[in-house]
Amino acid sequence: MELTESLLMSDPEGTIDKMLRLRQLDIRFALDDFGTGYSSLAYLKSLPLDTLKIDIAFVKDLTLDMQATPIAATIIALAESLGLDVIAEGTETADQCTVLARLGCHVYQGYYFGKPAPAAEFARRNGASSPTAS
């Protein structure tokens, strides 16, 4: 389940309580758009997270802006030190993937791999059977 920083910070204690209850159902959590919101490192250590998602703002300029690379590297190192997976959002080029891999990020999301699609189209493109509702 993806959660945004602004959602988490609107009621941190209540959100943590709900996350812990959902965690008992094996639900995993990703903090979406990390680095663009209220980023409170104090709460980051207490949230039951599994993944940090680097915001597109830090990914899109990786090959153009000298400031973007150290910021992305810091987010990746922070995630690693907290035992969290990291996903780079907004990956649109092979060069971005190369830089991210060099920094230690190996999971990417973005148009470089495909645009959002309905489940049936995704299944067709990837040789899987269409999901059915139950």
UniProtKB/TrEMBL annotation:
Q: Where is the EAL domain?
A: 1-130
Q: Which GO terms describe its molecular function?
A: cyclic-guanylate-specific phosphodiesterase activity
Entries under InterPro entries matching the protein: Cyclic-di-GMP_PDE-like (IPR050706), EAL_dom (IPR001633), EAL_sf (IPR035919)
Q: What is this protein called?
A: EAL domain-containing protein
Q: Which organism is it from?
A: Vreelandella aquamarina
